[in-house]
Amino acid sequence: MPELPEMETFRTILSNQLKGRPITQVEINREKSINLNPSLFTARVRGAMITDIRRRAKHLIFQLNNGYALLLHLMLGGWMYIGNDEDNPERTKQVVLSFGDRKLYFIGLRLGYLHLLTAAQLKEKLEELGPEPLDPNFTEKIFLEHISKKRGTLKAVLIDQKFIAGIGNCYSDEICWQARLQPERKASELTKDQVRLLFQAIQPILTRGIEHGGYMENPTYKGDQKTGGYNHHLLVYDREGQPCRRCGTRIQKTEIASRKSFSCPDCQK
């Protein structure tokens, strides 16, 4: 599932290529991927211009010049591709937005969605999300206060979108590795120094993920050399049996609350 670095990568790419361009056509191939009657959805979206593309947690927000916003969540298996009739993946496209001769294909939205919302609806939809971990206002003091109330594993705490927005299965493991902590450790068992190490690992890991284009493998457009670059820089996630980049011990794969998790049995305490 795309996490904060992947969605931030998409935001940058889509902003560069589609921001300021009017939507000339709308194609809906799966009604469950949207939240309105297809005719009404199309009528409100067609002709509108994308004035801004923002990210909130694992969502993208396409702000339209008619006051509405398109809220995207790719969920598991969802991705996007910018192309045209001759250049597009041989996959089922749930929604297609045309920008003249350029098209944005939404693929794999069987669990994800693209909803058209008013400003009030958008605020309500996102209001339960926790703080953005890359926000300057997300301080160590706030982190210490919030995590002191948690009783679950570090894995469960880090992927809780009401606690911190945008972290998922991959980067929770990467953060724990950076902090030298096992993801199955209980948050309530950490010392203040260990909590500090955990906090200090969050922003560098997410920033690193963004710099390398996230870990999603599918390109966003023809010739895309950025998307998925983090696959070559993973510290621990999906590296079962490979040597730890810090101590050389083989990485182990475990399961925590039905989620796969990767860690070093030696240098993560």
From TrEMBL:
It holds the Pfam family Fapy_DNA_glyco. InterPro entries: FPG_cat (IPR012319), FPG_Glyclase (IPR020629), FPG_N (IPR035937), H2TH_FPG (IPR015886), Ribosomal_uS13-like_H2TH (IPR010979), Znf_DNA_glyclase/AP_lyase (IPR000214), Znf_FPG/IleRS (IPR010663). Keywords: DNA damage, DNA repair, DNA-binding, Glycosidase, Hydrolase, Lyase, Metal-binding, Multifunctional enzyme, Zinc, Zinc-finger. GO terms for biological process: base-excision repair. One of its GO terms (molecular function) is double-stranded DNA binding. Residues 2-106 form the Formamidopyrimidine-DNA glycosylase catalytic domain. It comes from the Bacteria. Its EC number is 3.2.2.23, 4.2.99.18. Residues 235-269 form the FPG-type domain. SMART domains: Fapy_DNA_glyco, H2TH. Its cofactor is Zn(2+). It catalyses: Hydrolysis of DNA containing ring-opened 7-methylguanine residues, releasing 2,6-diamino-4-hydroxy-5-(N-methyl)formamidopyrimidine; 2'-deoxyribonucleotide-(2'-deoxyribose 5'-phosphate)-2'-deoxyribonucleotide-DNA = a 3'-end 2'-deoxyribonucleotide-(2,3-dehydro-2,3-deoxyribose 5'-phosphate)-DNA + a 5'-end 5'-phospho-2'-deoxyribonucleoside-DNA + H(+). The keyword Disulfide bond does not apply. Belongs to the FPG family. Monomer. This is Formamidopyrimidine-DNA glycosylase. The lineage of its organism: Bacteria, Bacillati, Bacillota, Bacilli, Bacillales.
